[in-house]
Queue: 4 jobs
Job 1
Amino acid sequence: RCYRYAFLLMVLCLLHTEPNLRIFVSFFAVNLRSGAEQKVVFITARVHPGETPSSFVCQGIIDFLVSQHPIAKVLRDHLVFKIAPMLNPDGVYLGNYRCSLMGFDLNRHWLDPSPWAHPTLHGIKQLIVQMYNNPKISLEFYIDIHAHSTMMNGFMYGNIFEEEERFQRQAIFPKLLCQNAEDFSFSSTSFNRDVVKAGTGRRFLGGLLDHTSYCYTLEVSFYSYVLGGTTSTVPYTEEACILYKSILPFECT
Ligand SMILES: [Zn+2]
């Protein structure tokens, strides 16, 4: 893995939350052809520190993107992937379940993050807004990876838009996932605009980005998935860290 990562452009942002706790957040930018408009896929994970499967999924995505799989090569040729694998590193360090060091649920503060109280969120939001304002960059896709403590399978939350056509287009990606990944459930996928979710990454970016962009929360069960058409459950294990096997078809080491 270390060798693979040597091919990545890594920018380390040093953050200070307390004198003895220094935290690194990494951004991986993979690819691309010089001169072309950058079509960016932005992925964030582990904003909720107790949701460990979020990190396994994110690791699987990174492993696939830097692999020699032909689909990964095509993706690298056409897209830039920016990945913030751990939005709440201080919460993870401290063993918190939901909150940051200062007791905030960061996934409720996207609308107005403070550089003092929510430094990782503030930094990521600045980066996203900069990209949004850059005419040479098209932010096409945003996925925030979480884990769910009561639901089975993988599934998504998406946004509701007034524009019917945009709303229908948002449903295409989770439908495709459902057709290609045995553990992904479209029936558990839902679209909402609850007031209580207004401060989430998916809702904030859904309101910021234009109608050609797609924003989702990807959830994966803490436990297991039910095979379609059966009552059999298959546990998610660390060894099975490539959760979407049929679309990420290579060995996990
Ligand atoms: Zn979560």
Note: Helices lie at 2-5, 53-65, 70-78, 89-94, 119-133, 164-170, 172-180, 201-208.
Job 2
Amino acid sequence: MDLSLLFVGTGGSVPSARRGLPAAFVRRGGDRLLFDCGEGTQRQLVRSIGLVDVDCVFITHFHADHWLGLPGMLRSFALRERRAPLSVYGPRGLRELMRAVRFIYGRLPYELSIVELSPAESVPREGYAVTAIPVRHRRGAAFGYALVEDTRPGHLDPELAQQLGVSPGPDFGRLQRGESVSGVRPEQVMGPARAGRKLVISGDTAPCEALEVAAHEADLLVHEATFAEEERERARQTEHSTARQAGELARRAQVRMLALTHISTRYAGPELREQARAVFAHTEAPRDFDAVELPLPERGPPLFVRWPGRQPREASAPPAPAAEARSGTAARSGTAARSGTAARSAAAARSGVEGAAPR
Ligand SMILES: [Zn+2]
Ligand SMILES: [Zn+2]
């Protein structure tokens, strides 16, 4: 069963040229889940995988950067005559919010369920569950989410089963489903149950113990890193985390991979990744449309996949003037050269880091 996460928007608070507002798209088999739906999420999806018919949307909290794209997306689904039901989950207050924006999406040709979750409440799904984790943001009315797969049966030893008189075929299936076959019990021929995969998304939060517990040995932790370590006090005041704090939490939780999101426009990304890597090596700083594939643990570690649609900035750019190269803006000047106008070059320079992040 495939499990993957696409970073639809990796920015925080305000979008930049490089980063859209928070949204993460999770695909598990045929299930399609969206976590947060910032303004512009529809367009981000169209630019990457297309505007897929998601089954569920999980909203972490009601700061505008996390949900403003939802009413428009509901409307778009209606315009193309969607019929499949859609569920939206979030903290208490979700109903009131959806009532307030109802006039935007209007009457829908599909069933829309709006479900307010209590802290620690789980949404059971086929083969897994999504649990709301109360995090430290917005006076407690904010969630992270943990997607946890059901435990899998242990590995069946075919040789041992045959020695005990069970023939390969349907009887193996019965053993794997927990039934005894001609006096042979499943536990005689099967190894211990195996844990399913776990994927945890922090939403916005200061470093949070409940999240750390939920993320214990997760295959992937997507954690916000709004600030660099130099802004630690600001992070504390605004109930956000620094990249290093995200790394420390990932290390304590012993996750297999940490991905940093909710990146403030003042950062390019790699500098935050390095701050987190100083304490937790398996850290990535995805850009929009990068993805993580999560194979079953016995098939290998999580795989970070760069979006193939992105051209390396340096590849087709003419050589940068020496002065600019020395000032460390080679990538920016390359962008400007391709755009071909001095005005855009100036705009790119003004926009600061978003215009210039070399990988
Ligand atoms: Zn936010
Ligand atoms: Zn927030």
Note: Residues 113 and 257 are 33 Å apart (CA to CA).
Job 3
Amino acid sequence: MPRPVVSAAVAALAALAAARPAAAQDERPGQFRPRPGEGRTPEFPPPTILEYKPRSTLVVPVHHVPRAKFPVVDFHGHPPALLSRDVIDRVVQAMDALNLRVMVNASGSSGERLRQQIETVRAAGHADRFVFFTTLDLRNVGPGSGRKLAAQLEADVKAGAAGVGEISKAFGLSYRKADGTRLRLDDPELDPVWETAARLKIPVFIHVGDPSEFFQPIDYQNERWLELALFPSRRLNDRSRYPSFEELMAERDRLLTRHPNVTWVLAHLGWHANDLARLGRLFDALPNLYAEVGAILYDLGRQPRTAHKFFVQYQDRLLFGKDSFQPDEYPYYWRVFETEDEYFDYYRDYHAFWKLYGMGLPDSVLKKVYYKNALKIIPTIPRKGFPE
Ligand SMILES: [Zn+2]
């Protein structure tokens, strides 16, 4: 009876095939078999990495999306300081053109500066377009700092702050404690702060680390070579100065796990946009965890099918966010999320040596990512202007 044997083999093969996509892509230069003509060198001087810009001859449908299909909450906004009517009017005008209904000012501010921005926005008649987060000064943390920061957090929330953040990547990478040691993400001194955020039911928006390649040697296999060569401050591969990527992630996961009642929002998909299954496991383990998509569009756009499945599966946990406020860059996000366009450019060539593809998300998922999830975790955002 060969049948059961065949189906067992098929099942084993299917299991293998299912396991494959989870593995990192393992192609490395030099592993290809020899080919005729191997060893040839270019007859002309090869261009530098900066010079080679081939024109694409691909002819496929093109859909530019200057305005998002549904109103959007930008959970990761860094507008200029909203302290004058003129600046506020300019930002609102740019938001209107993009269909950005509400911007979270994630350049958190505290005390007087927070009160001033809230007041100025209200006086300008745009109180329904901005949400303000408070910030935590995590430098020189020592005994008693946690209680002090928690009290400040409570006062800022009373003054109108709707969340904490963005907590800077300096937390974990470079902030030192009063005793000179690196402030670890899971330092128990800060427990009262996170517990206060949980009690006040406000989200904590945290940026941990940077893309994993920033922690690696800057060699010609590093897919962020050019960016690292251009920006000295992004080089984190000196282990005598910085923890490793995995050390930071382990600290972060211990922090999240120890405070499961906090509504955590990871900036930049926790820097797991190149390994969405890893973020999925974190979502599975932590029901109060959310993540925001700022500045990682290049990773979603190179895996449109995997990203589509991930967004459908975790549609209740993902938030739109942009990070730097460059109005002309938002339409790239709309295009990746809303269309099925193929092989188009990203807005920064030093981020990505590849083209983008549209994910073609269904309306129901777009609505959750664009605004419904944000309205759920920041209930004080006015509902005005958002469809059901
Ligand atoms: Zn940011």
Note: Residues 76, 78, 106, 166, 207, 323 surround zinc ion (CB under 6 Å).
Job 4
Amino acid sequence: MANNLLKGKKGVIFGAMDENSIAWKVAEQAHSEGAEILLSNVPVAIRMGSISELAKKLGTEVIPADASSVDDLNALFAVAQEKFGKIDFVLHSIGMSINVRKKKPYTDLNYDFLQKTYDISAVSFHKMMQILYQKDLMNDWGSILALSYIAAQRTFSEYNDMAESKALLESYARSFGYHFGVKNKVRVNTISQSPTPTTAGSGVSGFDKMLHYGELMSPLGNATADECAAYCIMMFSDYTRKITMQNLFHDGGFSSMGVSNTLLEYFKEE
Ligand SMILES: NC(=O)c1ccc[n+]([C@@H]2O[C@H](COP(=O)([O-])OP(=O)(O)OC[C@H]3O[C@@H](n4cnc5c(N)ncnc54)[C@H](O)[C@@H]3O)[C@@H](O)[C@H]2O)c1
């Protein structure tokens, strides 16, 4: 599929942990489209996952950074600046809820965990952009993306405090998109992806059923991680220069549906 869509572009990709990770697929496709990339993840994920193999395969390196730490992010972007000069694209593919992990229900949240969830899953996006903005690290017409989920707009009963994290994440894309657009034509968007079988996805209670539901509801079926990566590549390419401050649904049509015949048939069979 490679068309050199990102030839000459340099990017930083956060959140590849193992080969199921959406960021993993983005890194592979960005590389095959001619980009030079740097990878980053939190140290524990580097130890537990297989990102070092990905880096080796793509001829790049992994810079450890906890995305909730401004010091770590400053250190990471200093490496990126030394390697690339300015940056053309950034992917924030990070999500983690301690309440979900500790099986705290939405009606019994631990608020210290909640702060950490927001910090890792959403505020980290602002922190990245603030550093890139203040240090003038983005090239003109660059592209910054984060991955979101439709629970930001609609209630998904088991998505817990990740729903508000995604709402905040999407709001940062709009607010920072304004400032970055005025400063140097950089676009900032979120892609709202179908349920996808990854470590983060599978952590949500009832995930397999949500995956099945999405499949039955979406006229095009759930979007896969590879398809999501292809969309990210398009958003990093010069073909999407005037798309900014948007939440872009990449979900096979799910977000516009009420009910589908497939779903009705499914209940008939019960
Ligand atoms: N899988 C789905 O169903 C789905 C659907 C819509 C959106 N998303 C979003 O896609 C993004 C990527 O998730 P994924 O599905 O590829 O799962 P994943 O588990 O492979 O990726 C999540 C990543 O977040 C990283 N991370 C966690 N805490 C971090 C921290 N403090 N600092 C830096 N990185 C940290 C993890 O190490 C991991 O690499 C997330 O934002 C997720 O919410 C996923």
Note: Strands lie at 10-14, 36-41, 62-64, 87-92, 138-148, 187-193, 247-250.
